[in-house]
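W.,

You were right to be curious about this one. When I first looked at the sequence I had no strong expectations either way, so I just let the prediction run and decided to look at it fresh. Below is the sequence, 322 residues in total, followed by the output.
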Amino acid sequence: MAGTIDRVDRFGSSTPSITQLRTFLTVVDEGSFAAAARKVGRATSVVSYSVAKLEAQLGVSLFLRDKTRRPQLTEAGRTVLSKTRTIITDVASLSAKVRGLSPVFEPEVLVALDGMLPSSRIVDAIKAFRVAFPAIPMHVQIEASGAVTQLVLTRAVTIGVSALLPGDAPTNDIEAIGIGSVDLVPVCAPSHLLAGGDGSAKEAEHLQLVLTDRLAGAPFDRSGPVQPWRLTDLTSMQLLVKEGVGWGYLPEPMVNADIEGGQLVVMDGARRRSGVLRAIHRRDMPLGPAASFFVSRLASQASGECAQPPQVDRATLRRAAS
């Protein structure tokens, strides 16, 4: 016991540091003191001293001291290794949690997305966000465009993505950032009269399905023999069009597979339309780094460039991980 006390006094504090524990893990993972030294960019003697100090503080030998080239853990060393991995994981988790609560970062990001935003773009942006900001939770809901704007105005969400047709404009309280567009194609079921393509059938004479009144524009707000049916869900609208209930404009990425599979046909003679996709937020609620990255990722999808997290965020991540 006296010998152990002498060793602890000689090396200073009896409480191991996180740096010492990481050095110990590196020796184990790299297979030698020399390899660990190369990994951390330090001299082999520094790594050896750090492990020796850790052994003295713990009062046990972690490695067998023989002439084998690869360090062999003692029974105590194996126990310490298991506990050390748990500690390092917990410390990393704590650092990430604190980083997410820092005033520099938002504690969470609330997003409302227009159903017209292609699913591939949604998945790409969310996956990129998850990699860049693993400690910040994101809450996502899919809504119709009018509902997205309302959620932003009432501060229920941080960011909204809305599809606006020409002539539409957000209110003065909204800041809008262009993130591309989506083509809307007029489609109907193959059995529908409008699928003939001979020009004998008129669109105004057949039931049109629309996603609420805001996607209508002039052609939908018409006085005709058949008034349109209004729906609030794109998926329901797609299903009803496929079943021949009526015709309608649907996002091209959403119906490409149905067109190729013969479940829908593009109507000849009907004009295609385009919806401008915009990320929106309240002017009095500036976006934080995480929300800004998410918007930048959506914008970069349209430009073909990959958005990267701000440099200050990456530096903070490196500091938190060290």
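Here's what jumped out at me. The longest strand covers residues 174-188. And, maybe more interesting for your project: The first helix runs from residue 2 to 11.

Coffee later to discuss?

I.
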